[in-house]
Amino acid sequence: MSNLERQAVPSTCGGRGFVVAEPVRELLSPRAVRLGESTEVRRLLPNLGRRMIGAWAFVDHYGPDDIADEPGMQVPPHPHIGLQTVSWLHEGEVLHRDSTGSLQTIRPRELGLMTSGRAISHSEESPRSHARYLHGAQLWVALPDSDRHTEPKFEHHAELPVVTAPGLRATVLLGELDGAASPGTTYTPLVGADLALAAGTEARLPLVPDFEYGVLCMSGETFVDGVPVTPGSMLYLGCGRDALDLRAGSDSGLMLLGGEPFEEELIMWWNFVGRSQEEIEQARADWMEGSRFGEVKGYDGAPLPAPEMPGVPLKRRGRVR
Known about the structure:
CATH superfamily: Jelly Rolls
Pfam family, one: Pirin
Oligomer: single chain
Domain Pirin N-terminal: 41-141
Region (Disordered): 302-321
CATH architecture: Sandwich
Domain Pirin C-terminal: 193-292
InterPro entries: Pirin, Pirin_C_dom, Pirin_N_dom, RmlC-like_jellyroll, RmlC_Cupin_sf
CATH topology: Jelly Rolls
């Protein structure tokens, strides 16, 4: 998934200085962003008040959109460094192509996981013949310094572990939840889980006290630790919890995102996660010159040009504004 904003704003994130060490209930409101011609997303991270949850550095929620008579998602080839992209669907399909030669249709509750490492480019689009509705989330995971120059790769996992309880079905995307571990590759301690709750369900999820957590509402209304969370919003929970109480006011879908607070300070600009302005400038130049990021074959359209660099220096700072 690309950040398609033509006036890309640098985002400084990471570091432990602003991690909330105790449980909190901080409701994050989304910002509407256009993604191509027919898709609008709700951006939860980076947010005006909070930039990361563990290594999760970017969260977009979109849909459900009726695309029966629309092209749907159309994201041209674009570059990434220093991160993993996570594609997650509740409805519809997304066709992924990348410069390693991967070609994969991602369907609901299948994991599409791309590790950019040192450099990769990819495109995402709704297939020509597609389902009526498109609904999902796109997320980025920041890579630690020790792994951010690794070779790029793409993983597709159609079968994922599931944790069940009365009225609750939790699919583990990444990391581990209640003893169930995802096959997806991770580079820092984290968890991502999709939670489906039936109306009236009351459940208690086990958590890791050293992790910080957030809950994104995909559909329905759920009370998370007593706070009503509606579609397109996210509740930041801080650290220090060993369990989380959920109560579904209707059939609901949530995403639980958590992880060990990310210690390194980062610069995130456009589709790049780096450590210095020079690194970001070099990545932009390489993309515009057609080097380093490889070629996405088969996409019907031109690659996405990079925005102009901002007129202010890019600096690494803390996790919140």
